[in-house]
Amino acid sequence: MTEASTNTTPADSAPDMEPAAAIEALPEPRSRSGGSSSPGPMSWVTFKRRPLGADRTAPELPELAKPAPTPIFKLLMQIRDGRSRVRLVHRLRKARMLIASSLIAVVGVLTFLGALVVLMARSAPAWWVDIDTTSQATIDLADQVQNGALSHLFEDRHSEMLGAVRWPVKMTDEAANAWLNVKLPDWFAKITDGMRWPDSVEQMRMVFEDGSIRIGARVATEDGTRIYSAVLEPELRQDGSLWVRARSVSMGRLNIPAGLVLRGANADAARYIPESLRGTAEAEALFDKLAGKKPLFEDAEVHLGDGRQVKLLELRVRDGSIIALFETQ
Fold it and tell me: What one-character-per-residue DSSP string does 253-302 give?
């Protein structure tokens, strides 16, 4: 009770005391007065930071990574700054100019390629040579080819061995071209019961190469004349069937894979096929034969009116000529 009364403040006992005198009347801290260890209501408290020991470390606080500014945030910050805004405008202008220049370059390249394709399609290939069908030399050569073929075909051949005779035939591409341009239209009308040769096909040409035959036609179109050609590979198989597969198709000097053309040949080549043959089974069969799906002839033989038959035994194509071996039975 005595200690409690001793710790009462003078302000409680003397309410009329001056403020300065009341402050001086406060008790001294325990560290100075050496009083009792029990703290009073107005005692001083000293806090000391505990030193880190050798076996203790301060806990590491995780460092929070600052989020990277987004492009929109950067753009907004640049727009707020006057100088940055000017630089941004210049960058946008350069980007627009770069995009426009790239588009112009792409359009220019495509235009150049398109013009090159058109030019190549309209240009005559290097192997194409026009033939003067009115020349007497060309007409005479065509007559010789036709008469020689008929005489070889219907010649009365006799053999003491099994009644069969083998005989070879050789023809140059010059002779073949003369017959194609002079005699083919009339021959076509005879075998088709009077069907007229297409007026759009102005001229044809054939070139014998090593193992292949290059055949082409100059066709009149609305945009002028164009030369369409194909490289054919003949093959005589052991079963007697004759196959002719188109290796490539060309328009002028522009080469196109044969498979790509033959897939849509029924529609693309409709204007070059006689109207009576368009969409017929014969036209579809022709494209299948050129694609190598069907043989050109299942049996490479011809039956004559007198009971004999002429069969193709061998076929070779060399540069500038074709050699065939026939057998008459």
Answer: TEEEEHHHHHHTHHHHTGGGS-GGGTTSHHHHHHHHHHTTSS-SBSS-EE
Distances from the Cα of 113 to the Cα of 109, 208, 258, angstroms: 6, 32, 21
Q: What is the mean pLDDT of the chain?
A: 74
* Domain tally, the chain: 2
Residue 17 located in a structural domain: no
Q: In what order do the strands lie in the sheet with 254-257?
A: 201-209, 212-221, 224-236, 242-251, 254-257
Task: For residue 7, tell me if it sits in a domain.
Answer: no
Domain match, 153 and 295 both: yes
Provide the b/e sequence for 214-244 (b: ≥16 CB within 10 Å). bbbbbbeeeeeebbbbbbbebebeeeeebbb
The pTM for the full model equals: 0.60
Task: Give the lowest-confidence range in 116-120, 167-171, 264-268, 284-288.
Answer: 264-268
Q: Which residues pair with 221 in a beta bridge?
A: 224
Q: How do beta strands 254-257 and 224-236 pair?
A: unpaired
| Reported confidence tier of residue 82, pLDDT bands at 50, 70, 90 | low
The domain in which residue 243 lies consists of 136-328
Share of the chain above pLDDT 70, in %: 63
94: helix, coil or strand?
helix
Q: Are 198 and 277 in contact (CB under 8 A)?
A: no
**CA separation, residue 212 to residues 190, 265, 319 (Å):** 28, 22, 9
